[in-house]
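quick one, 136 residues, struct below
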Amino acid sequence: MSDLTDPSIAVPPEAAPVTLHVCLTCRKADEPAEADSPRSGRRLHDALVSALMNPQAIRIVGVECLSNCKRACTVAVSGPGRWTYVYGDLDPDHSVPAILDGVTRYQATADGLVPWRERPEIFKRGVIARVPALPL
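---
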């Protein structure tokens, strides 16, 4: 995983902001159904919000369900004119730096296509779907 301060992945000021959707209802397989503590998806969302250093470039939005329960925790990243990606099997306690690294790289592109070799390992292993960009 790379350093988030690496100038080679600096976000161009003219790049449009992107949205990271985080499933709030995700529950890891080993989580009790009636747990008193927040679900894994909520914990992932809160950790991402706390760690985000550039809220002008990346918006984090909690959503009720991304319908990927078998591969929780799940996020989706999208932006105007960019491909949308859905990623699963994320760990709320360990994945935050890699998620933000991957989304920062995504945000620095015009079309959302980050070269495979430049993606964080969890994005290579956890990709669920790639959806074409809608016309602007």
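Confidence is low (pLDDT under 50) at residues 1-8.
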